[in-house]
Write a structure and sequence with these properties.
It is built from eight helices and six strands, in the order ββββααααβααβαα. Strand 1 and strand 2 form a beta hairpin. It is α+β, with helices and mostly antiparallel strands and about 190 residues long.
């Protein structure tokens, strides 16, 4: 299983949600993947989660229009949506990383990212604060993981929220290092 952001697939698509069977010696066969969506705007979709959201929501046209109005999404979303509708600068993808970006945008991460994985980290931060509940639907038909029911459920549940993140330390390895240093200092002083 390979779930990541961006890789060039054998079929010319942007991969990132693949299931392989085989070995390094005998070779690998791709036996499953995330359902295809489109990414509008080339590399920009990896830097602006709203663009990934426009591409993934294109698979749910009625939901896309409703979500855009209800959440008052920024203009960037509508620009990306036009690219998708006209099939200009769009690329097929199975990227789970871009799905994380799309869900983050759906939940309020509407700016550009500053570092790789930022939207996913933000999404994880939200998930850790959320009460435990049953899993979102993410059906597997033996060949594809279908993200549409998951996006539908998240969109239906989406309500007003405020996310708090630290400003003094980054929420990545730099923040981990700072936490380790603080822990070591605290142990040393006792």
């Amino acid at each position: 299983m390979a779930f990541d952001g961006t890789g060039y697939g054998d079929d010319g698509a942007i991969w990132g949600g693949e299931l392989f069977v085989g070995s390094a010696v005998d070779g690998l066969e791709r036996v499953g993947h995330l359902r295809y969506a489109v990414l509008p705007g080339d590399d920009a979709a990896a830097r602006v989660p709203l663009q990934a959201l426009a591409g993934f929501l294109a698979e749910l046209p009625g939901l896309a229009a409703e979500v855009a109005v209800r959440l008052q999404l920024p203009e960037r979303f509508f620009t990306a949506q036009k690219l998708v509708e006209k099939r200009i600068q769009t690329f097929p993808t199975t990227s789970v990383g871009r799905l994380f970006d799309a869900v983050a945008a759906l939940l309020g991460f509407t700016g550009a990212i500053s570092f790789v994985g930022q939207a996913a980290i933000w999404l994880e931060h939200l998930a850790r604060q959320a009460p435990l509940k049953t899993a979102y639907p993410f059906p597997w038909d033996g060949r594809e993981l279908d993200f549409r029911p998951l996006l539908q459920a998240v969109a239906e549940e989406r309500g007003p929220m405020e996310v708090w993140m630290g400003r003094e330390a980054p929420p990545n390895d730099g923040g981990i290092s700072l936490g380790q240093a603080a822990l070591a200092a605290a142990k040393r002083s006792t």
